[in-house]
Every structure is written in structure tokens, then in C-alpha cells.
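Box 4.2: Ligand-aware structure prediction
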Amino acid sequence: MSVADVPSGPWAARCATHPEEAATGTCARCGTFLCGLCTRTVLGRVYCGPCAERPEVNFLERFRLGLWGRRDAWAWAAGIACALLVPLTAFLLVRGEFAVGAGCALSAGVGGAFFLGLPWARHALLAAPVVLALGSALRGWGYAAVGFGCLFVSALSIVSSTRNQLFFQREVSEKQLLRLWHVRENNPLARTALSVALGGVFLPVMAPLAILLGGWALSRVNPTSYPPVGRKGQALAAIGVGVTALALWGLLLWPRLGGLLDRLMEG
Ligand SMILES: [Zn+2]
Ligand SMILES: [Zn+2]
């Protein structure tokens, strides 16, 4: 029942928790009458308080909490880069290479801070390539300057990614969260199956595996469940590409297999 369907007037339905208040809607999960005070909105649907807290209703909140403050692949990469740069910096400074050594020390510091999730490290990750590009340009190292320029573009895409913002415990919009959820949680098996199927074009053993994975992913698809399980198209594409690859490899390998059998029979 939507908000508009609840009758008003003296005969109107009352809120289950606040009988003095007229109901303004019903919970989408348990059907309880709600007043304005009790109404909670999750992903555009109206729920009562206890239902809104349930993990299957607020799957996006559960997803967000699972990634909140947890290192993403870029944070780990920054940590590894820092661990490699520290001995390199020491080596360069000992050898008297102060300019390159200072660049390495700066990168190591930023990498370490990024790994630890220090809030300023996001800005430092953007600033460091600019500093290094300018330093390289001043010394006349054109290629290095261009390289650091490209690194700045990568850094920009890293700090603006939803996953990285969740590591740094920054609030993200529901839309951003939903997009990330689709990538990571919405039947990821279908996407894996499609990658394996494309691999099957080059490596025949991958084609039957892709058909199996595609079939498995297809069996999981359920658009009416909540949250919905999608990617039917990707699962079907995996099966289609897998079958095509298998057929093409069969056509290519069959005559050779026949020749091999003939030779074995003669021998
Ligand atoms: Zn409810
Ligand atoms: Zn109420």
C-alpha cells in the first residue's frame, strides 16, 4: 500500500506504534501501519524501523559497512611501493644522488601515509606527481615529467573511486554505492564466466569451463528477489561465446586429430 492509498478522516488507519497519529503509509516488508515519525526510507521504499535495519532490506548499508575503512587494492599497492622505496632512497642518498633520492623519499612518504589511511594522503597522492613532474621538467628530464603527468591522472581516478573513498571513511552517495554494489555483488560470476569465455577463444580448454560457469551464473539470476540478481545477458553471452569458441576449435583441431589417428593406425 502506498502513502496515497491510506484513507484519511476519522475512520483512518492509525500508526501501530503511535495510535494517536494517523497512518501515512505501510511498511514494504511487514505491512505495519506507519506515521511520519516511524517511516524510514531505504532505496526509495518505505519501511518501519526494525525492518529498515534488516540486512536483506538495507543491503547497501551492510555492503558499505563491510568496506568502511578496509584497504582497497590501491592502498595495498601504495604500501608495497613504500616498502620498496625506503631501501632505494637510502641507497641513493648513500651514493650521493640527492635529487632522485629526495623524489623517492617523497614518494615513499606519500605511499606509507596512503597505506595507513591518513586523511591528507589523498591530497598528497595528487600533489606528489605534480611536484615530481615539475622537478623532472626543471632538470630537463622530459620523459620522466610526462610519466609523472600520467601518474597524476591515475592518482585522480584512484582518489575519486567509490571503493577508495570508503577506505578513507568518506561519505559516498547512495548512487555511487549502488554502482559499486552492482560491480562487486550483483552476480559477479557472470562477468567471470564471460572473461573465461573470451579466454576460450585463445585457449580451447577454457571454453567448456566458460559454458559451465555461464550456466551456473544464469541459474542464479532472479530479478524479482530483493536485492535483485541480474547480469542475465552476460551469463548468456558467456555461454554463447563458449559454445562458439568450442565449435571453432573443434573445426580447427578435428582434421589434425584425424591425421594423427591415421598415422597411429599405420604405425
Ligand atoms: Zn516492517
Ligand atoms: Zn508512528
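In the box above, the bound molecule is zinc ion. The pocket of zinc ion (ligand 1) is lined by residues 27, 29-30, 32, 47-48, 51 (CB under 6 Å).
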